[in-house]
């Protein structure tokens, strides 16, 4: 079975964008809880001490969103292309 690389890449890019937007909204609504969760994931006692205070700006949001969606698209496309090459008979 061959994968449609473009459709898969589109789906992964859109999913990544949605998850990034949800995550950003969570940071805006609950910044302290967000930093606590981040600290736990990074095995830090306090993320604010290690990383400093942060705030969400439109520029920062776009600077994170655009490259992340591009990387997700390219990664999914490459994975599908490599998969398709590996299943050819």
In short:
The chain has helices spanning 5-29, 31-41, 47-51, 58-87.
Q: Helical region count?
A: 4
The beta-strand count equals 0
- Globally, the shape reads elongated
Q: Structural class, from secondary structure content? A: mainly alpha
Number of domains as seen in the coordinates: 1
Separation, N- and C-terminal Cα atoms: 11 Å
**Spans with pLDDT under 50 lasting ≥5 residues?**
none
Report the C-alpha radius of gyration, rounded: 17 Å
Proportion of residues in extended strands: under 5%
Helix and strand string, N-terminal first? Answer: HHHH
Mean pLDDT: 92
Oligomeric category = single chain
Helix residue percentage: over 70%
The biggest sheet amounts to:
none
Report on the architecture of this protein.
With 89 residues, the chain is mostly helical. It has one domain. It has four helices and no strands. This is DUF5671 domain-containing protein. InterPro entries: DUF5676 (IPR044020). The chain crosses the membrane at residues 12-38, 58-83. Keywords: Membrane, Transmembrane, Transmembrane helix.
Which features characterize this protein?
single chain, 89 residues, mainly alpha, 4 helices, 80% helix, elongated, DUF5671 domain-containing protein, transmembrane, DUF5676, membrane, transmembrane helix
């Amino acid at each position: 079975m061959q994968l449609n690389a473009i459709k898969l890449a589109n789906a992964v890019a859109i999913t990544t964008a949605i998850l990034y937007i949800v995550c950003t909204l969570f940071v805006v609504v609950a910044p302290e809880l967000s930093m606590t969760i981040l600290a736990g994931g990074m095995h830090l006692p306090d993320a604010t001490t290690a990383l400093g205070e942060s705030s969400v700006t439109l520029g920062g949001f776009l600077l994170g969103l655009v490259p992340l969606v591009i990387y997700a698209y390219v990664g999914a496309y490459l994975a599908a292309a490599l998969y398709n090459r590996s299943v050819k008979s």
